[in-house]
Amino acid sequence: MIKLVYSRSPRTDSKIIITDNIDKVRYLTEEQKLFFNKDFSEKDLQYLRLPEGMVIVVNSTKKNAEELRVLGFKVHDLVKNESICSLFCKNKEQTLNFLEGFLLSNYQFLKYFTDKEEKEFKLEKLYISGTNADGSLDKLKNVITSVYWARDLVNEPVSYLDAIKLAEEIQEKGKKGNYNVEVFKEAKIKSLKMGGLLAVNQGSETPPTFTKIEYKPENAINKKPYVLVGKGIVYDTGGLSLKPTPNSMDFMKTDMGGAACMAATINVLAKNNVPVYVIGLIPSTDNRPGKNAYAPGDVVTMYDGTTVEVLNTDAEGRMVLADAIAYANKFEPELIIDAATLTGAAVRAVGVKTAVFMGNAPEEYMSLMEKASEETHDRVVRFPFWDEWKEEIKSDIADLKNLGGPYAGMITAGKFLEHFAKHPYMHIDLSDAYLHQLVNYNGKGATGAGVRLLYRFFEKQVEKRRN
Ligand code: BES
Ligand code: ZN
Ligand code: ZN
Fold first, then answer.
1. Is there a contact between 82 and 56 (Cβ–Cβ < 8 Å)?
2. pLDDT level of residue 30 (50, 70, 90 thresholds)
3. Distance between alpha carbon 2 and the CA centroid of its chain, in Å?
4. Does residue 364 sit in the same domain as residue 242?
5. Residue 355: CB within 6 Å of ligand 1?
């Protein structure tokens, strides 16, 4: 993380100026003002590379939050290898939006490079004009570092991050952030009869984990918790229904993107003292073929007693999530939300720049999520959730089957999960957890998708209850 320092009149050689009027800027020479004024209305971004550093001018006229974030990304690209830089902007909200994009762009995952010092961005310190009296910069920093953490978890290969390690990492963050994390090991998972999680784990050499996170502030707006369930498949080979090569398995280390999203969301809610009572549930294992692996045709009894015919072992996400969602019921939650890299169908339907969501929660929750998506640009697009799709997951020999028909696989997967939720429910299929191509401040690789979205969703929930 870049060191951020507020200062009334910072002076460094490289400067970033965000303004809608060049003439009002104190930090430019008359000559520079003339230069920037020439094309000011046509260009969002102009710069001069001087021997002593960069002078960058961002035109903030009529810019919305997302445009400023993207400009933050573009400016970051220009100054990432300057060691110190100053940011001048009179408008607090614009500063924060710009910084959000700027800081998200500074993320790198260099752990496995031997020459990481060379690759590392050189920017160490950013002076920001103004004051941080309201603490909004610290809050933003906590959001950013939580997104970084989610990205790290997703970028880590299974050779490092197996189910045990994922649980440990969450536990460690809980200790630092002063919220409760409890890890159920295999014996406890067996005694609870979490049949879905245990079935998927049968082919694995590593035992499963089930991590329970609890953040319960005294001033919470809700008596009944919000339960956040995250898919923690640390690697998905498909199991006996092996994924075909080439390519389809290469990035399946990212199949715990939902777990990373939910853990990081609770982490930032706690760090920023957002008054909401939330519980996180993370069922985790890898999904592999093995001598004892669960097989197509198996019938599995889930945590809540529902029987499921397994017709494809690659539809493992819904098996582990179903147990966690059923377990969520015991907290009498106000709302259950899950996030999961659940289906290729979602990716095919909408691509990788948005997640898909659906649910049976009252409209006020659904539209609040859409508003949070608009505001953060951490996007979700709503899909229908009609009961007609339930037909497709009926089995001939058990209560449900884990495979739907040939179409709308993201919806039948959602309907499967809904069966286990006895309380208002929302499902997020995180098709945007990982990018193979750079998409501005979202980076290339793990995006941390869903963290800013859910954080804002809960902030909005608090605002709504308070008014
Ligand atoms: N983890 C995958 C879904 C996935 C694939 C997410 C590619 C992101 C990118 C999931 O476990 C899976 O394999 N789903 C199957 C389900 C099918 C067998 C019903 C799929 O979508 O093909
Ligand atoms: Zn799968
Ligand atoms: Zn999967």
1. no
2. very high
3. 21
4. yes
5. no
